[in-house]
Write a sequence for this structure.
C-alpha cells in the first residue's frame, strides 16, 4: 500500500533555497517536510560544486543579504569552514564567501533538525495532485521504499527547475524571450597542488592578461580569492570550448582551486536526453581544461584534479510566470517595491546562451535591488510558493536572482510566508505583507 505522510508545509528540493525555506517554515512552528532527490542537501552548491557564494554585499560593501544565510556563514566560520565574506579579487563583486561544502552539508542538516524539519532524502517528486479548487493536495514521489504521497497545506517549489509548478499546471517559461535558449551549463571541478603564490605573482606582473576590474594594485595585501583572465594562454590553447577566459576561485584548502571554465551550450536542462549529452560533454571538457591548466598556466605544473561535480551545473531552466515578473530595468535601476522580501547587490551576469562571452550590468540606486513577494507566487495554483532559481523573473533578471545568496533569501521568505499562511489559514497571496516583512526582519533579513 502507498505510504502517506501529512505535513503543514511541504518543501520540494533541498538546494540553497529549499534548505532556507524549510528552516524558516520549521521555525514558524509549522510541521514541515523537506524532500530531496539526492542523499545530501545543497543542490548546485554541493552536487555541482558551485563555489564560492556571491554575494552578500553591494559593490560599495553594504551587506544586503543576512538572515538564515548569514547565520550559516557564521556557524561555518565557527567551525573553521569559511573565512566569511572576503574581497573578490576578480573584481566582479565586492565580496565573495568561500565555504567548505562537506561541512555545509552537515551543518545545514543540523539546522534543519533544530528547526524540527522532517527530511526525506533519496526521494524524487514526480507527480502532483491538484484539486478542483486549484490547490495542490499532495505530491507523489518515487523512492526505494516505493511510491509515497505527501499531503500538505502549503507547498514550496525549490527544485530549481520549477518541477512542482510545472507538474501542477502553473504557467512556466524558459530561456530568452526570442528563442527560449538558456544560459550554458558548466561542469565544475577542483584541483589541488596549485602554487597560488606563483599565480598571484604572475597576475601582478601581467595585469593586462586579467579582467579589467581585477584589483591588481591591492593584490599584495589581499588573499587571492578569484582569478579571471589568462586571455593569452586561453586563446593560444584554442580548445573546443566556446568561452573567452579562464575563471577559477581559490580554496577551501590552501593549494586548491575550483574551476568554472567548461561550457556546454544549446542543451535543455529539463530534457533528459540533453542532460545525458551535457554530462558526457562536460566531463570531457574537464579533462581538456585540466590538461591545459597543468601544461600552460603558471603555478599548475604539479596540480591534479581532486573532484568533479556529481552532476553538471545548470544555470537556467524553467521559471514560473508569477504575479510579478522581475525585469532587467527593475534590477539595473535598483528599484524599490512595497512588498520587498529580499535584496541583492549581485550584478547581472549572463553567460551567453550561444556566444563566447558574459554580459554584465551593474545595479543602480543604492547598489541593490528589491525582490518583491509577488515574484514568489505562481499564477493559477493557490497554495504554492517558489524560492530560488525558479521564481518569476525575465531571462535577464534571472542573471542575478539565480546566485546562491539571493536563492537563500527568497527561500527564507517563501518559508516564512508559508508559516504565516498556515497560522492564519489563508492563501499565500493573502498573507499580510507587513506581517511577513516583520517576520523576515525578526529572522535577520535586510529589507532596506
Ligand atoms: C555553473 C554554475 C556556476 C555558478 N556559480 C555561482 C557562484 O559562483 N556563486 C553563487 O553564489 N552562485 C553560483 N551559481 C548559481 C547557484 O549555484 C544556483 O543558481 C543556486 O544553487 C540555485 O539554488 P536553488 O536552491 O534554487 O536550486 P538548486 O541549487 O538547483 O537546488 C535544487 C534542489 O532540488 C532538488 N530537486 C530538483 N528536482 C527535484 C525533484 N523533482 N524531486 C526532488 N528533488 C529535486 C535538487 O537535487 C537540488 O538539491 C552557479 C550556478 C551554476 C550552474
Amino acid at each position: 500500500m502507498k505510504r502517506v505522510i501529512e505535513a503543514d508545509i511541504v518543501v520540494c528540493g533541498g538546494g540553497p533555497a529549499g534548505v532556507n525555506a524549510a528552516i524558516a517554515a520549521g521555525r514558524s512552528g509549522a510541521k514541515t517536510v523537506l524532500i530531496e532527490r539526492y542523499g545530501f542537501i545543497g543542490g548546485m552548491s554541493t552536487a555541482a560544486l558551485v563555489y564560492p557564494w556571491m554575494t552578500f554585499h553591494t559593490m560599495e560593501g553594504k551587506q544586503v543579504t543576512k538572515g538564515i544565510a548569514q547565520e550559516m556563514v557564521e556557524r561555518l566560520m565557527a567551525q573553521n569552514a569559511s573565512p566569511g565574506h572576503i574581497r573578490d579579487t576578480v573584481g566582479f563583486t565586492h565580496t565573495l564567501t568561500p565555504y567548505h561544502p562537506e561541512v555545509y552539508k552537515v551543518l545545514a542538516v543540523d539546522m534543519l533538525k533544530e528547526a524540527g524539519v522532517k527530511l526525506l532524502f533519496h526521494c524524487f517528486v514526480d507527480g502532483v495532485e491538484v484539486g478542483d479548487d486549484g490547490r495542490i493536495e499532495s505530491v507523489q514521489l518515487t523512492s526505494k521504499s516505493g511510491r509515497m504521497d505527501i499531503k500538505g497545506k502549503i507547498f514550496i517549489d525549490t527544485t530549481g527547475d520549477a518541477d512542482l509548478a510545472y507538474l501542477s499546471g502553473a504557467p512556466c517559461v524558459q530561456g530568452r524571450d526570442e528563442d527560449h535558449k538558456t544560459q550554458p551549463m558548466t561542469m565544475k571541478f577542483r584541483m589541488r597542488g596549485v602554487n597560488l603564490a606563483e599565480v598571484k605573482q604572475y597576475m601582478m606582473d601581467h595585469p593586462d592578461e586579467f579582467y579589467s576590474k581585477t584589483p591588481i594594485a591591492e593584490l599584495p595585501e589581499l588573499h587571492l580569492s578569484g582569478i579571471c583572465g589568462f586571455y593569452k594562454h586561453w586563446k593560444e590553447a584554442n580548445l573546443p570550448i566556446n568561452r573567452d577566459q579562464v575563471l577559477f576561485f581559490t580554496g577551501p584548502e590552501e593549494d586548491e582551486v575550483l574551476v568554472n571554465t567548461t561550457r556546454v551550450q544549446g542543451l535543455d536542462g529539463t530534457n533528459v536526453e540533453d542532460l545525458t549529452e551535457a554530462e558526457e560533454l562536460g566531463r570531457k571538457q574537464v579533462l581538456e581544461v585540466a590538461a591545459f591548466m597543468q601544461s600552460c598556466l603558471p603555478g599548475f605544473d604539479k596540480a591534479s584534479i581532486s573532484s568533479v561535480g556529481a552532476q553538471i551545473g545548470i544555470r537556467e531552466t524553467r521559471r514560473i510566470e508569477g504575479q510579478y515578473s522581475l525585469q532587467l530595468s527593475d534590477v539595473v535601476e535598483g528599484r524599490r517595491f512595497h512588498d520587498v522580501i529580499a535584496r541583492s547587490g549581485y550584478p547581472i551576469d549572463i553567460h551567453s546562451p550561444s556566444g563566447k562571452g558574459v554580459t554584465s550590468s551593474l545595479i543602480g540606486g543604492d547598489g541593490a535591488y528589491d525582490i518583491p513577494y509577488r515574484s514568489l507566487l505562481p499564477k493559477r495554483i493557490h497554495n504554492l510558493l517558489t524560492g530560488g532559481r525558479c521564481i518569476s523573473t525575465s531571462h535577464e533578471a534571472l542573471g542575478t536572482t539565480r546566485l546562491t545568496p539571493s536563492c537563500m533569501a527568497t527561500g527564507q521568505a517563501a518559508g516564512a510566508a508559508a508559516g504565516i499562511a498556515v497560522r492564519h489559514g489563508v492563501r499565500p497571496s493573502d498573507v499580510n505583507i507587513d506581517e511577513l516583512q516583520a517576520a523576515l526582519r525578526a529572522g535577520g533579513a535586510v529589507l532596506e
